[in-house]
Amino acid sequence: MTQERGRGRSSAVIVAVGSELLTPHKIDTNSLFLTERLNGVGFAVIQKLVVGDDPSGLSRALGYALRLADVVIVTGGLGPTADDVTRDVVAELLGAPLEESPAIVEAIRARFTARGLEMPEINRRQAAVPRGAQILENPRGTAPGLWLSAGEACLALLPGPPRELRPMFERLVQDRLAPVSDGRRVERRMIRTTGRTESHIDELARPIYEPLAARQPPVETTILASLGQIDLHLSTVGPEPEAGARVLDAAVADLAGVLGNSVVSTDGRSLPEVVGELLRRRGARVALAESCTGGLIASRLTDVPGSSAYVHGGWVLYSNEAKVALGVSRELIESHGAVSEPVAEAMAVAARDAANVEFGLAVTGIAGPGGATPSKPVGTVCLALAGTAGPPRVRRVQLPGDRERVKFQASQAGLDLLRRALLRATDAGP
Asked: How far, in Å, CA of 157 to CA of 310, rounded?
């Protein structure tokens, strides 16, 4: 292993094989899983390549990757059909002739027999193994994985289906990587925030995270922005995970101190998960009255297992008639408009009272592309939270983007309004 390859840290390249990955209909989720696992055992993923089912293109990609990295992980192209070319390309590239493995043939035949089927002869292609390769058993499918040496690099061929790839990597590949990484490990932490812009978060966090880059072990910080959310990723790599863990834990505590209630979680939990846990602790339930989000807040909350303990239910109130039927005054709508703070407040109170729960959360807005006025452009959203103590909390926000982006950000703002109220209630005690 050369210093140029690893640059002080073991390097990896992921090559995803499959023409379907070059269309808008299929996403390469395997690379996300593999990157996380490789980072966890001390590897920096320096490139990801997506290649179609083309032998010459795959050969060039693999040759490039093997010159660049200490470990190359290839996913896909191990099936039985003619367009599954990974085995053939690797065998030719490494000068390792393919040899049929009788054990693999029998294992595949047994899988078909267990289902009352006869094995098609085409499946024998999956038993072709480049000479010198180690076979990685696949109890969840017919395509075995393969582990090979390729000059100074190691090469792992894994099946494409995630349900087959993930257990194979964890059981049979991860331990093989330890000698390559020289025992180095990556420690990671993530701080999830909402309610502030990326520049505001960076302005607060930079004085803390910037000096960490010069410490031993050095800490790398990345700020990632997504819709309604800013995440800070902190990582350090070295042979002593305990030292890295102590540095990162101290950094997280310092950052959480300056970011305050903008911090949603420091353990990877999502905003709906955190809101659900806060409701559960209070023994409280919420009812939703949603207009522009169309039930998205309820959907996100109920994506969390066990959410029936704190989500009572809700109403999707797109028309004025529906709002009136729940209990919003028609005169209020006519006076202020359906998208207004008073109407949002009335929706929240009506939802809380109709459901007889502790909290009513409401959102009404203009998601676009139509419906805007000079005083209420697309992205205007009004939110309200009615609890059992004090007056309702009401917010008006202006959200950027198209219809889908406005809807999601409105759901994020609504969940954050509820989260902050629950945090204040927790601070105040029972």
From this structure: 45
Contact 387, 358 (CB under 8 A): yes
Residue owning tokens 């420690």:
187
Among 21, 128, 146, CA closest to 72:
146
Question: CB-based contacts of 44: which residues, under 8 Å, 6+ apart?
Answer: 9, 10, 11, 12, 237
Give residue 429's pLDDT. Answer: 46
Distance from C-alpha of 28 to C-alpha of 34, rounded to nearest angstrom: 11
Q: Specify the 3-state DSSP secondary structure of 246.
A: helix
Give the pLDDT mean for 233-258. Answer: 89
Q: What percent of the chain has pLDDT over 90?
A: 85
Instruction: Render pLDDT for 28-71 as a digit per residue (tens, 0 to 9).
Output: 999 999 998 998 888 889 999 999 999 999 999 999 999 999 99
Alpha-carbon span 88 to 175, nearest angstrom: 26
Residue 301 · residue 416 · CB < 8 Å: no
Provide the 8-state DSSP code for 103: H
Q: Which of helix, strand or coil describes residue 210?
A: helix
How does DSSP assign 106-146, residue by residue?
HHHHHHHHHTT-PPPGGGGGGGEEETTPEEE--TTSS--EE
Q: Kindly tell me if the per-residue pLDDT of 183 is higher than 70.
A: no
Name the band, by pLDDT with cuts 50, 70 and 90, for residue 259: very high
Q: Which among 219, 285, 286 is positioned nearest to 255, based on CA atoms?
A: 219
E-state strands within 242-358: 263-265, 286-290, 311-316
Other Cβ atoms within 10 Å of 153 Cβ, number? 21
pLDDT band for 236, please (50, 70, 90 cuts).
confident
Domains, the chain, with CATH or none:
3-181 (3.40.980.10), 186-265 (3.30.70.1120), 271-428 (3.90.950.20)
Residue 251 has which token pair? 């950094």
pLDDT in tens, 214-233: 888 889 999 999 999 999 99
The amino acid occupying position 137 is E
Say which residues have a Cβ less than 8 Å from residue 22's Cβ, sequence separation at least 6. 50, 52
